[in-house]
Write a structure and sequence with these properties.
The protein is of the alpha/beta class. The protein has 2 domains: 150 residues, Rossmann fold; 108 residues, Rossmann fold, CATH 3.40.50. Helices cover 48% and strands 16% of the residues. The strands form 2 sheets. It has a 5-stranded parallel β-sheet with strand order 4-3-1-2-9, with helices on both faces. Helix 1 links the parallel strand 1 and strand 2. The model has no long low-confidence stretch (mean pLDDT 93).
Length: 265
């Protein structure tokens, strides 16, 4: 069985890395829409068309399930994709609900990092309105962060300066959790941990997404896929250099995952 992962660029690799840990007996096809990355600063209707075209290419290659590993793409096109295709489809949304529940008893606020487009979409406002009855959620657009990530800019000093500039107007003592509301952003989780106050937790939706995927595969009777964790990459721009970049970025993530696991044991 082969599971498709789709994102505008390398961000969805943070979700794929989690899937490789939890679903080692599946194979994977990862598609990046490199012709149009980033989505977060583009018009909604244009992005919807890009997504449908890209997923159509993935379907032609043969996939048994699809993860839309992008918060923006999920908000814009998940309903269209489910109407068009009958296979299991899992989307993503910023982990606002668990963050609010975790902070409910602390009196601290929640700060959501996301792309400008995600924060402008009705789906995000509906999510916050549904779960934030205490009014503790604030949102911070980080339009430049996807560009940094796509360039594999992970220099600690450079990125910490960037985050300090963006957070300059926020009293971090007021916050208990930061939500990484774009799949590119977990690439910077360790850099953020090193600079943020120790009391602030950093959460994303990756683990929850892969758990939902696993449950959905079981429901469809396609759990235990007989694969070997093979990953095939493709991109809309057909650039060999970008495929090399995706392989490098995934290797970085898997190395970090292995280090985290070793430190935890």
């Amino acid at each position: 069985m082969r599971i498709g992962f789709f994102d505008s660029g390398i961000g969805g690799l943070t979700v794929l890395s989690e899937a490789l840990r939890r679903l080692p007996d599946m194979d994977f096809l990862y598609m990046a829409d490199t012709l149009h990355v980033p989505y977060g600063t583009k018009a909604e209707e244009d992005v919807r068309a890009y997504i449908l075209d890209s997923v159509g290419l993935m379907m032609n290659e043969g996939i048994d399930a699809l993860v839309v590993a992008c918060n923006t793409a999920t908000s814009i096109a998940i309903n269209d994709l489910r109407e068009r295709y009958s296979l299991p489809i899992v989307g993503m949304e910023p982990a606002v609900k668990p963050a609010v529940e975790m902070n409910r008893a602390t009196g601290k606020r929640v700060l959501v990092f996301a792309t400008p487009l995600t924060l402008q979409l009705p789906k995000y406002y509906a999510l916050v309105s549904r779960v934030d009855e205490l009014g503790i959620v604030d949102s911070l657009p980080l339009p430049e962060l996807v560009h940094y990530c796509e360039k594999l800019q992970f220099d600690t000093a450079i990125m910490q300066d960037y985050f300090r500039t963006k957070l300059a107007d926020y009293n971090l003592d007021d916050y208990g959790i930061i939500v990484l509301g774009c799949t590119h952003y977990p690439f910077y989780k360790q850099i953020l941990r090193e600079m943020l106050p120790a009391h602030i937790e950093i959460v994303d939706g990756n683990v929850g997404t892969v758990k939902r995927l696993s449950a959905l595969l079981s429901r469809y009777g396609i759990a235990g896929g007989g694969g070997s964790g093979e990953v095939r990459f493709m991109c809309s721009g057909h650039e060999p250099a970008y495929i090399d970049k995706m392989q490098k970025a995934l290797a970085i993530l898997r190395e970090r995952d292995a280090l985290s696991e070793s430190l935890a044991t």
